[in-house]
Specification:
The chain is an alpha/beta fold. The protein has 2 domains: 113 residues, D-Maltodextrin-Binding Protein, domain 2; 80 residues, 3-Layer(aba) Sandwich (D-Maltodextrin-Binding Protein, domain 2). The protein is built from 9 helices and 11 strands. It has a 6-stranded mixed sheet, sandwiched between helices. The protein has a 5-stranded mixed sheet with strand order 8-7-9-6-10. It is elongated and about 55 Å long. It binds 1-O-pyrophosphono-5-O-phosphono-alpha-D-ribofuranose. 1-O-pyrophosphono-5-O-phosphono-alpha-D-ribofuranose binds next to strand 9 and helix 7.
Amino acid sequence: MITVALTKGRLYKDFTAYLEDNDLNQYIDPLSEDTRSLYTVVDNVKFIFAKGPDVPTYVESGVADIGIVGSDIIEEDTFNILNVSQLPFGDCHFSVAGLPDQTEFRTIATKYTNVASKYFRDKKTDVSLVHLNGSVELAPLLGLTDGIVDIVQTGNTLKDNGLIEYEKILDIHARLIANKRTFYTKEDEIYKFLTEIGVF
Ligand code: PRP
């Protein structure tokens, strides 16, 4: 049995769309069930559903053998894992965004303070960061900050809130990550699964 940690939310939808596009029917129904259960088992693969930032924690500890996670999570924090490969879904990017008439960014709200801090440090721009846990688009709308650093995928969230993108920071993709020990001790089972879903 191998354990695969999946991210709930947008990446989960992208992963199930990838399964559908590739007719991987054996996984589609079990993974698409509308339930609050946090795991499901298909043959000898146990899938667990975790918050994005927790996926590398499960993989690092070895309770999950591999994981599928956005590169945003790996850019933001450091984990003792194997960062195995890029996956063909989950594409989006980090951007600086704000109200249309914004001329400078002195304060930025973000969930990704390390990514934002590095970006502005590299640009030699002095910015004060405010850490929020989500719905960061509210911050410039309410005057909490001049702008945000956040993930943009379709751009709909920015558009629906009257915000525009000013600077693209970095591309984001889904990544396959693995535990440093069990990736080798369970090599055959992991390889079989990855081959089956066409990512290895
Ligand atoms: C992310 C991100 C943006 C939105 C962008 O939020 O933080 O708010 O998606 O996607 P779009 O460009 O396709 O509209 P998420 O839904 O993950 O939740 P959050 O706001 O709680 O972070």
